[in-house]
Amino acid sequence: MTSLFFLISISLVIFILLVLVLLNLLHRDRSSVQARFAALCLTLAGTAAAYTAPRFVPEVNPLMGEMVFALLCWTAVLVYLSFLVDMTAIRRSRYFYLSYAAIPPVALASVFVSRPAGLALLVIPGIAVVVYYSMNFLRIWIRNATDDRARRDGEWMFILIFFFTFGTIVSFFHSVSGLFWVLAFWMVVIHFSVNHLGIFRNLTNTENKLILDNVFDIVIIVDSQGSIVRMNRRGYHVTQFSSIALIGHGVEMLVIHRDLSPRNRVEWLEEHAWHDTGGQNRRSPSIDAILATRSGEEVPVDLRVVCLVDLSHETTGYIISATDMRITQQLIKEISDREYAARDLALSESKFSRLFVFNPTGILILDMDTLRITDVNPVMENILEMETSMLEGRTLGDTGLDFADMSREDFSERIRQEGSVSEFSAQITFENQRVKKCRLSAVAFDLNDSRRIMLSASDITAEEEMREALMRRQKVETVGILAGGIAHDFNNILAVILGHIGLAKMRITDKQARDPVERAEQACLRAREITGQLLAFSRGGAPVLGIHDTRELVTEFSMLAVDGTSVACLYNFEPGLPPLHVDRIQIGQVLTNLVKNGAQAMDNSGFIDIACTVCDYRSRSARARPNGLDSKPVKRGLYVQIAIHDRGCGIPEAIVKKIFDPFFSTKQTGSGLGLSIVYSVIQNHGGALEVQSEPHKGTTFTLLLPAMDEEPSSALPEIPAAPDGEFRILVMDDDEQVIATAVSLLASFGYAVDIAKDGQEACEKYAAAFESDTPYDAVILDLVVPEGMSGQECAAAILTKDPAAVLIVSSGYSDDPVLAHWKEHGFKGALKKPYTVDEMRRALLNVLVL
């Protein structure tokens, strides 16, 4: 009967323990505490089964049963310790799990050591370990409790552990079944404490409690229904409430707000709570409210509510933080002069920081003693083309920055003595030998008890290039003003000479007699080329644009330049080159000058490489287009790039930037105008020009010239001279010799010629002829008439009367863009002075034979 009662008793204990295992494993908020407690109950159930089995199952070896019983007893002790560690969130020692290795030897000793020593080895250490750690954890709980209720809960658990420990010891020596019943009831008490009473909640996460209690703001923790669960020490101090008076009550008992009431406290919390959605707003909105106190005083506070969610994103509660605005107001009133100064200093530092970061000027902060970089702003990073992390700790020399007017030692000494250094120049040399020019200024200042230097830098590379381009352009324009006037008068004289030479050639049939005349004509044509070069400097210098085959133009003038030398040109033309939209004569001068310079650099012997490629900038942005000679991107359009490379001695780096200056020459016999003409012509065409030179390897000039999509029109076939007297021509010019020469030439063609000395006279004669139904077949108008109506004004008047009038503009002065864009002003052709007989014949036939 006794054995049956014992079996039923142990079975009930095992049943209770297994029920506790299931309840904790199936708990909806199961955590490591519930899992550990389930393991503890399961171990105790196994211990009871191991103790009972040998007594009722004969097949079980008693010795084996005692060994399993001892092993499970010590395992239960260690699982219980793990359970306490999880509840209190105390950091587990890295060697804790090694204690499981001690279970087998201790269990074996408990079994094989004869009693009572073996029994004592099993019972006394186990009870001692359980009691010690239980009391120690409760002591920690009671000591860290921040309110009366938490402390009271700890004291009650302390008393319960004492009684259960006493009951365990008594039961062990009186009745084993009683021992297991004591342990089972102890597990039931712990189960309700953990899962239902919540008295262990205050024992968990000691670090968070310490942080919470040391927060200066008032912190209130409420559950999902708005009931107060906890408040930190600061809250109890301000409100003077006890935990017994607050815990479990609604938050409206403490917080007074116009929209908060017992009925809608959950909705109020949800409305004002901040939910962490991963967005940019990482701070909860503030709420102005009143905090109630036990004495009836109302404390103005600034509230913030944060929503607490579990892993399934279900709301588990809210944290309410309240800032006592009385303290804030009091602190504002009690700020001392020193605190004001500190605030001003902080404000100044903040302003300095913003000015430092967002300043459009590059700024380097240097240590005065070592001249090492301590900080740089983003603009300086761009100037030096290095990141801050790469610059910090480096010296100025490591960055490639060199002062132009002083050494670094002189700079350091001057900044120490004077405290600042006004504007001075420097340059930055990069690894690829690229150079940036900078304008610097420096000032010394104190920062964090150490002397610093603030070095301000501006990248003036583009400014310097524009300044040099402007100076070069001013030089060219200065020469151009003089050259334009000289060329105009000289062209008129050449027009007379060439005209009479042409007449002489027409009248002299003897070859031997014609030879000196032809040589004189060649000399005049050479003089015309010189005036053409001078006109390239004139203010207008505007090109007379036409469409010309690229291959033909480049080949013709480059071959002309090397004629009579031992230099050969090697051509590389890209297939499908578009025609150039340029002034043939001016671009011919450019090509001739560049190829001649290359030939002279090679002592008129060797090879010159000429490559032509297509550059399509019609859809490119400004950044993707190269800069023209005005330092601005070239216009959108189609271009041809012409690269002329010689294999001579190269140009010294020191004079590369001077080669385009007027009258600058490295040759004793040079005029110094060749490259200046190149520069001016390319500029007038809206193109780009670049020079690259390496000593002993040669020089490359790269031209970028505008091109057209359409093909150039084929040359007109030779047209025979018109019959005598077939056409009537009116010539207007203010120079009598030019008129006389033109009349002689036109008369030699068999044309009837009338003359006028200014535009007014020409208009009158044309009107009279038009009204008498004998209009002129063509009118040649001089563009510039200093003391009368100009050719442009005359053309406008004639076209008003007769829109079909055939007008030809003639001038030896290129200041006016009319000569370059004669079609836009109603002219049918252009005749540039000085002109030959053939050029005049061609100009007339082009407009008369239509």
Chain-wise SSE layout:
Elements: H1 2-25, H2 32-56, H3 62-88, H4 103-112, H5 117-144, H6 148-174, H7 176-197, H8 206-213, E1 218-223, E2 228-231, H9 233-239, H10 243-246, E3 255-256, H11 265-272, E4 273-274, E5 286-292, E6 298-309, E7 315-324, H12 325-333, H13 337-358, E8 362-367, E9 373-376, H14 378-384, H15 388-391, E10 401-403, H16 408-418, E11 420-429, E12 435-447, E13 450-459, H17 461-507, H18 511-535, E14 546-548, H19 550-561, E15 566-573, E16 580-582, H20 584-601, E17 605-616, E18 638-645, H21 674-684, E19 688-694, E20 698-706, E21 728-732, H22 736-748, E22 752-756, H23 759-771, E23 778-782, H24 791-801, E24 807-811, E25 829-832, H25 837-848
Parallel strand pairs: 4-6, 15-17, 21-22, 21-23, 23-24, 24-25
Antiparallel strand pairs: 1-2, 1-7, 3-5, 5-6, 6-7, 8-9, 8-13, 10-11, 11-12, 12-13, 14-16, 17-18, 18-20, 19-20
Kindly list the characteristics that best describe this protein.
single chain, 850 residues, alpha+beta, Rhopdopsin 7-helix transmembrane proteins, Beta-Lactamase, 5 domains, seven-stranded mixed sheet, six-stranded antiparallel sheet, 25 helices, 25 strands, 48% helix
How would you portray this structure in words?
The chain contains 25 helices and 25 strands. About 1% of the residues have low confidence. The protein is of the alpha+beta class. The protein starts with a helix and ends with a helix. Strand 23, helix 24 and strand 24 form a beta-alpha-beta unit. The protein folds into 5 domains: 202 residues, Rhopdopsin 7-helix transmembrane proteins (Up-down Bundle), CATH 1.20.1070.10; 119 residues, PAS domain (Beta-Lactamase); 107 residues, PAS domain (Beta-Lactamase), CATH 3.30.450; 157 residues, Histidine kinase-like ATPase, C-terminal domain (Heat Shock Protein 90); 121 residues, Rossmann fold (3-Layer(aba) Sandwich), CATH 3.40.50.2300.
